[in-house]
Amino acid sequence: MSSNLTNKVALVTGGLGGIGRAICARFVKEGATVFAADLADAESAPGTTFVKLDVSVEEDVRKVMRVIHERCGKLDILVNAAGIEIEKTIEETSLSEWNRIFSINVTGTFLVSKYALALMRKGGAASIINFGSYDGFIADPGLAAYCATKGAVHALTRAVACDHGPEGIRVNAICPGYIDTPMLRGFFRDYGDIESLETAVRNVHPIRRYGTPDDVANLVNWLTSDEAKYASGQLWILDGGLSAQVQQMRL
């Protein structure tokens, strides 16, 4: 087993989701102490400690930080992976839906990062990984509120990196494209013929596949390691080349 993250303490929000679970498993493999935070107590990656957390509730966030402080005394890595998607145009999106997606995707990232900072300073050097999206640069149709939240996360990432870099805290955002998760499967189901859609999605990527949670976990692992100690304030697009290409006319 690699000792890349030995003696590191990590908190992963959305730690029971497809991507969050893969990140937790990779951190455990690398020797970290891992807290998997999520809304429901379900089976988590082996070797992790589950903590219940609604990222949009300030007191929940404070409680989790108290638990980590009492058990470990510091926090070296924070991954803000909790997030939801609403598949609607702005005309179809209600104000309550708009507020809900912002409360989780943006306010949740703000609150967890805000209350993690004191613990992160104790370790001397730390890393925050936020989750943006390639939809924060370009837009898929019918995802207006989701795209807006990811653009906000991108801007927040840069700001926090600038403010807290002098304290030894690096901040980056990973911006995935199509990743094989329950969220993507739900998106496919809404459009009928899943098999045909999966094939079409693969074929539009230059590398002819969409990503896996492990692909994301690999990048997260590198960004949180000492090998990436000069990397901060950046938006790392992970989409198999999808957003690099001009979408040619199909005749």
TrEMBL record:
UniProt KW keywords: NAD, Oxidoreductase
Question: Per its UniProt entry, which superkingdom is the organism in?
Answer: Bacteria
Ketoreductase domain ranges (all copies): 8-177
Molecular function terms from GO: oxidoreductase activity
Q: Which InterPro entries match?
A: KR_dom, NAD(P)-bd_dom_sf, Sc_DH/Rdtase_CS, SDR_fam
Classification via Pfam families: adh_short_C2 (PF13561)
Key word Transferase present in the record? no
Member of which family? Belongs to the short-chain dehydrogenases/reductases (SDR) family.
Write the protein's name: SDR family oxidoreductase
- Taxonomic source organism: Trinickia violacea
